[in-house]
Amino acid sequence: MNAYISDKTFAITLQGVEVCNRTSIQELTPSVSTTGNLLEDAYSRLLVSFHQFGHKPSQEMLRALKSVLKTLDHMVRGICPDNIFLSSLDPGVGKTQTVISFIEALRNSPVEWHKHVSMMVCVSRLEDIEKLVTTHELNTDEFAILTSDKGLNSQGCPDQQNARFLFTTHKMVETRTEGRHFDDIREFHYMGDRRQVLVWDEAMLPGSTLTVNRDDIASLIKPLRKSNPRLGDEMEALFNSLGDDENGARRQLPDFATQFGLSVEDMSSVICNPTSDQERALRSLELLSGRWITVRNDGRSGNTMLDFEETLPRGIAPALVLDASARVRQTYRLWENKRGGVVRLPSATKDYYDLGLRVWDTGGGKQSFRRKKEKLLKGISETINLRPGEKWLVVHHKAEPGLDIPAELKRLLTRPDNVSFINWGSHDATNDFANVENVILAGTLFYPTSYHESLGRASAGLSSEAGDFPGDWREEIEKGEHKHVILQAACRGSVRRCIGDQCAPCNVYIIASRKSGIRPLLREIFPHCSISDWKPVAVQPKGKIAEALEFISEQLDMDPDGYVTFKEVQDAIGIPDRSNFRKNVREHPLFAEGLERKGVKVAKVGRRRAFVNKQPELFDLLGHSWDAP
Question: 551: Cβ–Cβ under 8 A, 6 or more apart, which residues?
């Protein structure tokens, strides 16, 4: 069967995987025959699904996706080395769909021994499992679900060890394998043996952070002292000594478990109704008991002691990890260079030329929102109200007493029904907004210095006992985490979609002060994007900029369906040199803001670029393409 992807420039013969230039289009059929060649069958299914979704990745991206399929095929055949294979393709390229296509090819393969091959897919959230289950047309006896949610588990086969496909969570893997070899966990087996294929969706880390600050310890002193005075005194002594430690100091903690004969469960039981923060502090103290720790100053929060916990089970490799943030995070690089065992699969460049980033140079952390909530909410609402008929997505801090951004923002919006909200923490959990072209990051996530060092030590396998953690490593970890959260949050919107090797058009507004260091990182996160200032409080343009905006408005008022070329504007305002016009007018932030307020966009008209009214239906019919102002 020959079938071609329709993008007018190239086509792919599914069986044989021939890439060539064509102008004629043959419709793809919805089904793919099975040849027994698992790699090619899965690739054929992938291309068919892309065509049905209207997804048109570049040839480089297709080659990278085929390397994912090749890795899975090697696992099936038992020839995959015991490594972590890392695919770092950007959001929206098709990594998850590639795994789905492989599952369909495997379950439909006519090869007899393929019927005894099983897979395990690990995801970060329960919602991800629900989506996987609804995507596949698996029979109930073919798949099992292993989570903490019994209702979700009941959707699959109750006999988990006899279901070919097992869906579970990262947390379940960490919980069931704590201190044990991966091969010894019977719950993950199929027919008494380890499953041959293991897929880990989203971030994988070899360890998790352990941090306890003085406020955490202070919250434990009084309730512990009531039932165990000596332990309460020990907590008070630890509180005081931690305050006296120098930044970067390393020392050994007392062995609380041995000294007082208490486990973390025992410590928790003596506190009536402990808060989640108290439970976390108790567990961290139990894990750090008797170990060397590092002390790091976290500014307003004071000194914090840190180290890390090994959470990745022994023997989990080979495993395929699908993490779009692997391109920007430093954690994987430290893992590669210090621990080893990580193999990066071929990747592909995604071009963000059609992404317009606008940065409001002001603080956007939770503290900033508490101090200047009215100003920030006014700026966000006025920006949205300029284009109330369009869809918007706002990524915001979690609600707390006195700060509920969605509720307070809705009262200021002209069309609140056109605005969706997700909080930080869920910013990488959904693709429901892939058609939303306007995204506002209402601040960003900021973690303390102790967290970045703990994360870096976990990635490198460098315990506090083993030595100091270099400051430049910690700085790179911090930058990588900034890149990670911004990439994931922004890519909830239309920027995640691919048109060839480019992103779909999207506007992303970011609140970030210059002190955060985020702005210089944006071009590393989004190659070839455009970056301009976002100033919600309007500054009235003057001089040539004002003249240009007035001329464009007059011309489009007279002919709303027409357009005004760059050259016409340049001549009208009397700037003979094109480069001066570009530098002093077209690329000036006030000019871009003025166009946005007037609802004017830039379109390609033939080989020229022109200013047009916002009438996409008309210009689509005329064959013109849209660009960002």
Answer: 564, 569, 572, 573
Q: In sequence order, what are the residues at sequence separation of 6 or more whose Cβ sits closer than 8 angstroms to the Cβ of residue 29?
A: 1, 3, 48
> Cα 317 to chain center, whole Å?
24
CA 205 to chain CA centroid, nearest Å: 15
Task: Give yes or no for a contact between 501 and 9, defined as CB atoms under 8 angstroms apart.
Answer: no
Question: Would the CA dihedral through 366, 370, 373, 379 be positive or negative?
Answer: negative
- The tokens describing 478, both together, are 């911090």
Could you tell me which of 384, 391, 430 has the C-alpha nearest to residue 410?
384
What pLDDT is recorded for position 268? 66
> What pTM does this model have?
0.80
Task: List the structure tokens of 149.
Answer: 């949610």
Amino acid at residue number 563: Y
Please name the residue ranges forming H helices in 245-289.
256-260, 264-269, 276-288
Structure-token pair, residue 471 = 């400051």
Tokens coding 97: 């769909």
Spatial distance between the Cα atoms of 224 and 239, rounded to a whole number of angstroms: 13
Question: pLDDT by residue (tens digit) across 378-405?
Answer: 999 999 999 999 999 999 999 989 899 9
If pLDDT is split at 50, 70 and 90, which confidence band does 110 have?
Answer: very high
Asked whether the beta carbons of 485 and 364 are under 8 A apart, the reply is no
Rounded Cα–Cα distance for residues 150 and 123 (Å):
17
Any idea how long the chain is? 629
Amino acid of residue 41: D
Residue entry with tokens 């869906």: 167
Query: What is the full DSSP assignment across 171-229?
Result: HHHHHHTTTSBGGG-GGG-BTTB--SEEEEES---SEEEEEEEHHHHHHHHHHHHHH-H
Q: How far is it, in rounded angstroms, from Cα 227 to Cα 494?
A: 56
Crossing angle (nearest 10°) for helices 589-598 and 543-558: 20
